[in-house]
UniProtKB/TrEMBL annotation:
Key words, A-Z: Amino-acid biosynthesis, Aromatic amino acid biosynthesis, Isomerase, Tryptophan biosynthesis
GO molecular function: phosphoribosylanthranilate isomerase activity
Gene3D superfamilies in UniProt: Aldolase class I (3.20.20.70)
One Pfam short name: PRAI
Reaction equation(s) it catalyzes: N-(5-phospho-beta-D-ribosyl)anthranilate = 1-(2-carboxyphenylamino)-1-deoxy-D-ribulose 5-phosphate
PANTHER family xref list: N-(5'-PHOSPHORIBOSYL)ANTHRANILATE ISOMERASE
Keyword Amino-acid biosynthesis carried by entry: yes
Protein name, UniProt field: N-(5'-phosphoribosyl)anthranilate isomerase
Signal peptide: none
Keyword hit for Isomerase: yes
Amino acid sequence: MKLKVCGMRNSVNIQSLLKVQPDYMGFIFYEKSPRYIGEELNIDLLKTFPRNVKKVGVFVNAHPDLILKTVKKYTLDMVQLHGHETPDVCRGLRSRGLTLIKAFSIEPGFNFSRLNNYKSHCDYFMFDTKGATLGGTGQSFNWEILKEYDNEKAFFLSGGVSPLHAEMITEMKGLNIHAVDINSKFEISPGLKDIDKINAFARQLRPTVQIPQM
């Protein structure tokens, strides 16, 4: 199972996280987020990333042209769409060669048939917690509802994942979980991660990955 750490922006924090060898590192390009990269993200640092750490840009209802320009500017490897983007928007972006993660906000009674029109236009899905506003909530949803998903397309598990969830996640059988997405529960402050917490979680989640001692 792979690991994605989202909401990064501080250069020193990013360099420390690279030692943990996450599979994905997420950068938020949504101005209303407290983890919005603003002018803080170091473009030159992103260009030095090893190939095994994929850079993911997170967008919310952004214009496709802006997404494409941002991908080029920051040498992003993947795009995460976290708003109300339509299947046509996904199709258009993917036709330009982008690797897409489409996020869906899960709530009781969520109808997974909504995903059918997206399946051929996205590489992965992400299941996050439904909130009052767009973006992450820092809260987890009832993972039992995932038993209703057909597992046809691999997904990122998101929404309030905490250090206490590692064992529970590794025991979730029969679900096509590609990666676990962590963010606020591993922070010192918005956008600044507790690397020791992430390192411990990563060791539980991926026991076969050789992570250097911190």
